[in-house]
Amino acid sequence: MKNNAPREHTIANHAGPRRKSRISLSLTAALLLLVAFSLTKGSFDLSLSQLWSILNLSASDAQVQTVIWQLRMPRTLLALLIGAMLASTGAVIQGIFRNPLAEPAVIGVSSGAALGAALAIYLLSKLDIQYLYGASSLLIPCAAFVCGLLATALVYQLAQNNNGTSVMMMLLAGIAITAVSGAVISLLSYLADDQTLRQLSSWQMGSLNGASWNQVWLCAVCFAFTLPIFIWRSQHLDTLLLGEAEARYLGINVSALKTQIICLVALLVAVSVASVGIIAFVGLVVPHLVRLMFGVSHRYLIPNCALLGAVLMLAADLIARTILVPIELPVGVLTSILGAPFFILLLLKQRQSLG
User: Fold this and answer.
1) DSSP state of 296
2) What are the residue ranges spanned by the domains of the chain?
3) 215 vs 332: CA distance, rounded Å
4) Would you say 20 and 300 are in contact if contact means Cβ atoms under 8 Å apart?
5) 54-60 — which CB contacts under 8 Å span 24+ positions?
6) What pLDDT does 163 receive?
7) Is 67 in a helix, a strand, or coil?
8) CB contact at 8 A, 185 and 199
9) Which long-range contacts (CB under 8 A, 24 or more apart) does 32-37 make?
10) What pLDDT score does 4 carry?
11) Phi, psi (deg, nearest 5) at residue 101
12) Cα separation of 243 and 46, whole Å?
């Protein structure tokens, strides 16, 4: 398979360390600004001075403190973490597949994880054991992880040919997995009671409503575990861009690298889906934007994808919950509306590059 990444981003590759540092600092500043906006904007607005008094525990209004610490703070942190997780997984899965169109939602990994989560939700509701030893908080992410991993392995096997990874087969496999998962989830929704139906519908659209501290801690622990491994593997991912044969010649165990990365991607996607449902196109759009600024080196690509992913997810959630107050849009719907045109442009560009 032809690899276009180095050719497409040669200008960014000449960017000096100072320029890259300035861009990273700008992204960090934008992230902090959006965190402040996310905490102060909502059904009622707060000033920055009020927010500061709440954060340092000097505010006397118990109701406002509850809104910040139990509603807005976990939602803001969860949006930040989900955006960072999806964007970084998009960067590494594009590196593993050596394909700019690879993304967990596009190739069916998110749908596979959603199917596992939906099956767990439905079975737990029927068995009525969701409160037994915290079964729901454990079984749902585990089911999402197993099904997401199986979906990833299936896509990888179907997309392989003598020339590497077939773009067409990868997309077709993703479409097939998404279709099957959607059909099964629709069947479960038809059979479910009202409470389970609402939960399944919310997950299909992707929503940060109802974010909790348990979800924040789960995502934070998983991301803190996987991000250093992604960065540690960045040089190997750079070498893999040259081709699998070249990477093996340079001493890299390509099979072990792919297995490790795919398992970690499945873990993060599973945790993301278990927490907020399917959020599409973040893992597709963000790596391309970051490559334009930093080049193709995964050493810069992965951490800055996490930064920009957090920025975009926070911005999308802020728009989703404030643009039509009191109505709140599912953030997954908004990211799909914004990301689908970008995906079409990438397909057209890919077709032109293939002649």
Assistant:
1) S
2) 5-353
3) 17
4) yes
5) none
6) 67
7) helix
8) no
9) 34/311, 34/314, 34/315, 34/318, 35/76, 35/80, 35/314, 37/318
10) 47
11) -95, -5
12) 53
Query: Bridge partners of 161?
Result: 164
Give yes or no for a contact between 38 and 317, defined as CB atoms under 8 angstroms apart: yes
- Distance, in Å, from the CA atom of 38 to the CA atom of 108, rounded to the nearest integer, reads 31
Q: What is the mean pLDDT of each run of 10 residues along the chain (355 residues)?
A: 46 67 94 93 79 75 82 95 96 88 79 89 75 62 86 82 71 86 91 84 82 92 96 94 89 88 88 88 91 91 96 93 83 86 78 64
The Cα–Cα gap between 166 and 347 comes to 14
What pLDDT does residue 134 have?
Answer: 55
Q: Which residue has the tokens 């069947």?
A: 187
Nearest to 254 by CA among 242, 265, 266: 242
- Identify the DSSP state of 2: -
CA atoms within 13 A on the CB side of 174: 18
Q: What pLDDT is attached to residue 56? A: 80
- Comparing C-alpha atoms, which of 73, 33, 44 is closest to residue 322? 44
From residue 240, alpha-carbon distances to 52, 111, 225, 320 in Å are 47, 27, 23, 38
Question: What is the spatial distance between Cα 72 and Cα 127, in angstroms, rounded to a whole number?
Answer: 33
Which residue type sits at 256? Answer: A
Confirm if 315 and 30 have CB atoms less than 8 A apart: no
pLDDT at 25: 95
Predicted TM-score (pTM) of the model is 0.85
CA distance 334 to 280: 9
Number of Cα atoms under 13 Å in the Cβ half of residue 355: 1
**What's the gap between Cα 33 and its chain centre?**
21
Measured in residues, the chain has a length of: 355
Fold of 5-353: ABC transporter involved in vitamin B12 uptake, BtuC (1.10.3470)
CA-based radius of gyration for the chain: 21
